[in-house]
């Protein structure tokens, strides 16, 4: 058992928790629930304990904590591990819930699938509890490993070098914040030991078939070099996002989510990284892609757009049509999918449109929504006629899944028109806080609501205690 003095001694982990709590916009007695994602490993267990201690000792009764463990049901011991976390929480009077990954597991890409499911289940829990945010136990060691892995793949001005964001908006509905991003894992373990607590060791942390584990070993605990890169790149990315947001707001026009015009000045300046990011972001949304084009595509595109020759080029499923009045972008009319949307369901079609079917009948959604009305509207809005003609080929259309003559027993009412809006795959699932301004400009251009603001003040400035 640790000595009583050790139990009470202030610790860097508790200081980090206190500092984090002081950044909330919530003031005075406004109650706020923080949902802590606890796997049972040292980092998340240390985070829960440090937040609990900071709240209890600091008299911060405006805050309450709840913990949630995701049981991925991939290892036989996972249910017991979740129960161990439950017991730890019960001893401290902290509410705890377990969410289980139900159903079929994919045969390949299990890590990525588990991560996607984990964040989605955690966001469900946060939303149901009306939590201010979710918090995870990511550390400076995780950050350094992420940066080192990305460094191997990126160019010096690449956004990836900003590393993990201190805040990420998940599914447009829950902010995930990382209060320990500047704290070393060793400090967290030291804190748990001082409080007489153990933790679970995830066996995948020593499995060298994972790149992260190999990188961790190669770094040998020295994270200084990677963190120095981060301090510069995180701030640079936030400033770049701010400048790109302003370019998007002034030099881009979007036509019903189908096509976009980039002003000539923006196109001419493509060699500038802010312009390039703005253009690549619009390209991703018009093409229905969840990521920016890779460096080779970006290079080809820059050469084409700045070449001054005009004409058309295709990149990332998007046609670029360069004319005197600007560069026009629209989805190429190839490989357009057909999907069925069941009653009461919402689906994303082609990565570009969110279709909500509120009717009691299934509907089929596909390409072919080209109508004289749509063409007239786009032309009236300023889209050149030849561009309109090609752009409308990738417009969405829908119909009842079963034609009326084939379903004599069906209700007489036809499905009502589905609700359709642009999907921004690039930011709708994971939006790092340093891209928030740019994402809001994109949302405005594509007729969507702005993204949920984070509940804390300084997450946007990404100020890091690491230096
Ligand atoms: N099974 C789980 N249940 C609840 N929270 C979890 C679980 N696994 C991970 N977490 C949360 O995520 C944090 C990071 O864990 P880990 O490094 O294993 O995840 P990751 O997949 O690398 O996360 P990311 O993909 O965001 O980098 C943990 O500190 C914890 O807060």
Automatic annotation (TrEMBL):
Subcellular location(s) per record: Cytoplasm
Key words, A-Z: ATP-binding, Cytoplasm, Ligase, Nucleotide-binding, tRNA processing
Enzyme class: ligase
Gene Ontology molecular function, alphabetical: tRNA(Ile)-lysidine synthase activity
Domain of life: Bacteria
TM region(s), chain numbering: none
EC number of this enzyme: 6.3.4.19
InterPro entries named in the record: Rossmann-like_a/b/a_fold (IPR014729), TilS/TtcA_N (IPR011063), tRNA_Ile_lys_synt (IPR012094), tRNA_Ile_lys_synt_N (IPR012795)
Ranges where the tRNA(Ile)-lysidine/2-thiocytidine synthase N-terminal domain occurs: 34-217
Binding, ATP: 39-44
Presence of keyword Cytoplasm: yes
SUPFAM superfamilies named among the record's database cross-references: Adenine nucleotide alpha hydrolases-like
Function: Ligates lysine onto the cytidine present at position 34 of the AUA codon-specific tRNA(Ile) that contains the anticodon CAU, in an ATP-dependent manner. Cytidine is converted to lysidine, thus changing the amino acid specificity of the tRNA from methionine to isoleucine.
Name the record gives this protein: tRNA(Ile)-lysidine synthase
Lineage, broadest ranks: Bacteria, Pseudomonadati, Pseudomonadota, Alphaproteobacteria, Hyphomicrobiales
Gene, per the UniProt record: tilS
């Amino acid at each position: 058992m640790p000595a009583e003095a050790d139990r009470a001694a202030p610790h860097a982990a508790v200081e980090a928790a206190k500092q984090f709590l002081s950044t909330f916009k919530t003031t005075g007695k406004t109650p706020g629930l923080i949902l802590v994602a606890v796997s049972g490993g040292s980092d998340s267990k240390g985070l829960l304990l440090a937040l609990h201690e900071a709240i209890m000792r600091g008299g911060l009764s405006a805050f309450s904590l709840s913990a949630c463990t995701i049981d991925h049901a991939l290892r036989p011991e996972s249910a017991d591990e979740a129960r161990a976390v439950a017991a730890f929480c019960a001893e401290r009077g902290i509410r705890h819930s377990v969410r289980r990954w139900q159903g079929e597991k994919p045969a390949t890409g299990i890590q990525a699938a588990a991560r996607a499911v984990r964040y989605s289940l955690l966001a469900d829990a946060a939303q149901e509890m009306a939590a201010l945010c979710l918090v995870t136990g990511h550390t400076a060691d995780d950050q350094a490993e992420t940066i080192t892995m990305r460094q191997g793949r990126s160019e010096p001005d690449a956004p990836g070098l900003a590393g993990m964001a201190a805040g990420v908006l998940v599914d447009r509905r829950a902010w995930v914040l990382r209060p320990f991003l500047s704290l070393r894992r060793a400090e967290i373990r030291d804190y748990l030991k001082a409080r007489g607590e153990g933790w679970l060791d995830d066996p995948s942390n020593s499995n060298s078939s994972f790149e992260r584990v190999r990188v961790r070993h190669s770094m040998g605990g020295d994270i200084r070099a990677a963190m120095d890169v981060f301090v510069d790149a995180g701030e640079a990315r936030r400033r770049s996002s701010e400048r790109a947001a302003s370019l998007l707001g002034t030099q881009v026009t979007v036509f019903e989510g189908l096509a976009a015009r980039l002003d000539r000045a923006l196109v001419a300046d493509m060699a500038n990284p802010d312009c390039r990011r703005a253009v690549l972001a619009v390209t991703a949304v018009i093409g229905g892609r969840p990521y920016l084009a890779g460096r080779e595509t970006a290079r080809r595109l820059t050469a084409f757009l700045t070449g001054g020759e005009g004409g058309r080029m295709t990149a990332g499923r998007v046609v670029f049509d360069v004319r005197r009045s600007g560069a026009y972008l629209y989805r190429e009319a190839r490989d357009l999918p057909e999907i069925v949307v069941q009653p009461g369901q919402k689906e994303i079609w082609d990565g570009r449109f969110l279709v909500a079917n509120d009717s009691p009948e299934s509907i089929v959604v596909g390409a072919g929504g080209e109508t004289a009305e749509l063409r007239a509207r786009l032309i009236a809005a300023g889209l050149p006629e030849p561009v309109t003609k090609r752009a409308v080929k990738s417009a969405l259309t829908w119909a009842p899944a079963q034609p009326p003559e084939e379903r004599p027993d069906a209700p007489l009412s036809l499905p009502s028109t589905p609700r359709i809006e642009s999907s921004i795959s690039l930011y709708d699932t994971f939006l790092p806080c340093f891209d928030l301004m740019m994402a809001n400009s994109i949302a405005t251009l594509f007729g969507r609501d702005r993204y949920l603001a984070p509940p804390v003040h300084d997450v946007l400035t990404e100020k890091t205690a690491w230096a």
